[in-house]
## 1
Amino acid sequence: MLGFFLDRKETPRLGTLRQLFLFATLSRPELRVVDGMLHERRYLKGEVIFDEGEEGQTVYVVIAGRVLICRQGEPETGKITEIESGVVFGELALLDNAPRAAQARAAEDCVLASLARGDFESLLDTHAVIASKIALQLARQLGRQLRDRSAPGERKPL
Amino acid sequence: MKSGNAANSGPSRYLSSGPLVWVATIACTTLLLTLLKQALWFVVPFLLAIILYYALFPAVRRLTLAGVERETAAAIVAGIFFVAAVLAMVPTLPWLAAQTVTGEEALSRYLGGGQGLLDRTLTMLESQFAFLKRVEFHAEMAKKLASFGGSYAQDHLTDAVLSAAVSLPALLLAPFLAFFFLRDGRRFLKFCCDAVPNAYYERTLYMVDRVDATARAYFQGLLKLTGLDTVCLAVGLLIIGVPNAFALGLMAAVLAWVPFVGSVIGCAIVVLVAATDFPADPWVVYAAVALFLLVRLLDDFVFMPLTVGRSLHMHPLPTVVMIFVGGAVAGIPGLILVLPLAGVVMVIAGTIGGIVNNPRLRARNSFAKTLHARRITADLHS
């Protein structure tokens, strides 16, 4: 009977989210639950997204544009890496409230999706499958970063 | 160039605390209660709607995960609740009608029972203490009570019953409001967060999360506390032998939502029932009073710390001050609302205090404004 109420449409918004690494393994209903929790933010080129040392509350995914990760206040000389569309940053905020390891600035005008730690924690309580899928993707990204750590120019987890 | 950002680090910096924040919390809560007093007819359905929202929200989330759209899920859950509420009301309506017809008779019977208990107690006291008999304590008390009862009923009871009857239809707003909270609550929060400048965004998210967690913990805790109180009182009254133990326990537990006064009124009602149904056995009354005292102690030291107490994180001193302020400003609804309201206001005031005390965040906001200004005036300079 529930099938009558099911929404079978794949909206462009859900299609965009599905292409993001963090949510690539989620089914459509799961994606819709997560979409309800995501906030979309727009930043102008040069605008600070977060500072080094700030307590992280959210993880960000770049939907459009590029983000510069650099040492605090040194966007020119202290560049650590640049993050392209589809990639996650600030991921350690989901795991604990440790200070951010570097500063993030918009390298160009960009659109970001953010998922708050509080929402992720509520997912753990209510939708453990979704939370575990996101956590697994996060672990994969962290593992990849650790493997590449010795390579010059590769970024550390934030 | 390198700007130290120590001010941002550490969870304690997120919520500012200090005398100013406390003054702001008390002042804002008092102001809100004063405003709420002007719309009291709306306060009770609003409060019930919030409780319904937190009770029904898990079901909506389950349906959303099963693939149902949020709007449809909210409609299904609210619809099922409404139908269940109507079905539950149907068998109780004839009983309620009968109670309304015999209400006056029952009220005077129970009041008579209470007066009988008082008479017996005063007679016993006079027989024990000679000086009370000399000053005609029993007769004086009976005269004063009769005069107080008559004038009080004339002055207040009719008005109270009439205003309750007038505000009863407003209760129908509760499921209606709860439906919209369920359907659009998250969208409304996103809408509010979208309006916040980027520099303050993470702080605002933290604040929204804390406000939601505080309200959720308080109201869900309140429901759990009501359940625990109902079970304890019903079992206790059943053992004592008081009739309608469950209904009385539930009524007393709901009345306990009003701090201090509610428990006393609940106890008084049960004492009246016991004194009327067992006029020859005062020990039933004493046992009922002892039961209420025991449940009160359990509430204060065991149940409340496990349920509601964990939600507000307020020091006992401002808590008591706020309860008195709430009662003085907005009466009984003020007493019920003051604690959750103060908890929410405290989080908001703490967050705003944290932003005001953080020059780095204000500088970032100012820089973002400059970037926007440059962008929109770029073609004007060329």
## 2
Amino acid sequence: MGALFDRICEALAPKIGESSVAHGVLVLRIAPQALLDVVTRLKEDFRFDLFADVTAIDWLGQEPRFEVVWHFYSTMHRQRVRIKARVGEAEPAVDSLIGMYGSAHFMERECHEMYGIVFAGNPDLRPILLYEGFQGHPLRKDYPKEREQPLVPYRAGYEMPGGE
Amino acid sequence: MNTRTIPIRPESRKSAAFEYISTRKDELIGWARKFSLFPYPFVTACCGMEFMSVSSTPYDTDRFGAALPRFTPRQSDLLMVVGTVTHKQAPVLLKVWEQMCEPKWVLAFGVCATSGGFYNNYATVQGIDRILPVDVYVPGCPPRPEMVIDGIMKLQEKIAGQQHLIVNDRF
């Protein structure tokens, strides 16, 4: 396990910032621009053939505000790699991985609706768990915790939750 | 989506004799109806396991004539909302309720359907009574089968004591 991780770090050295091993997972911190290069190398040279997840973390108050996190698994080596990239609030955009992994379509849609991360190159970022017309991104830290956006008018006697 | 079904209105009840007779007719119809509840299970979440438990042999809601789930709202008269209802599901639930023929009753099964439960966030309706009228609330996470049976019996009492809209001076 160590040898594989060392080879990855060595091969990708110019592209990655910090690297560490957390809970048996190799963690690579990269600049968002380097994403496609790094993932291409991981997939083609190191056989990370399974795209497990993409999500984001909202570090409200820090700059850059968001941290996008990808997880990859190699069914050949049985090892996992986690990639992290920071993007700012003004333009929370990273490249889409749909060219390499088909499963990226749905996972990027979910990350987009929950955190507002834009995946450049994904042509279909419609809501997948939420509904059309939902305003804001509910897993951002500044989304009001109890704000509701009902689709059905409430019955008499119940106050309709207002907008923001 | 926002249209409501129009309830059938009783025709005017004129004489005192009619009042007396129709009360007895109400009782008769109530007695018949309370033992022939056809539930439509709108099952969305983990309460569904408890629903299966309460409708199967050890607890056996068939004793109340309420065992045979109809999987179309048009054939059922008791809407059992079992589990959490999200805002995305709310139009679906309302449409199911609107498709049911009168007379119809609604039972909120579990604390999520009753009040949203411990979900208070962007996704969850804080109780289905915000979107449709509820007759019986059965709290619990999930409710014990005994509580559900108690809820059904409460509903039966309610039906037995109801004025039934099909009773008029021609019936």
